[in-house]
């Protein structure tokens, strides 16, 4: 399975909600949560646009940012959305 990267920040309710929903998937999708406030470059790139979900295009390939996830998606609907985005 591809690892998902969740660009997030502390205290962001949308970020925390998406993280919880992703961790609750069955089977769980590998997930790495990255706090954008720990890196000035990430903070400059994402600003207040978090949460941003991305996958690596290949082993050493660039990141592919996914479209914004609706906060209403959870469970099977979120899994179907990920499949539609090409995340396996």
UniProtKB/TrEMBL annotation:
Pfam families: Glrx-like. Gene3D superfamilies: Glutaredoxin. PANTHER family: GLUTAREDOXIN-LIKE PROTEIN C5ORF63 HOMOLOG. This is Glutaredoxin family protein.
């Amino acid at each position: 399975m591809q690892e998902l990267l969740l660009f997030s920040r502390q205290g962001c309710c949308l970020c925390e909600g998406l993280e919880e929903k992703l961790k609750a998937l069955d089977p769980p999708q590998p997930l790495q949560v990255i706090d954008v406030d720990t890196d000035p470059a990430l903070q400059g790139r994402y600003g207040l646009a978090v949460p941003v979900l991305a996958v690596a295009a290949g082993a050493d390939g660039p990141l592919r940012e996914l479209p914004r996830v609706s906060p209403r998606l959870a469970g099977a609907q979120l899994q179907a959305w990920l499949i539609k985005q090409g995340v396996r």
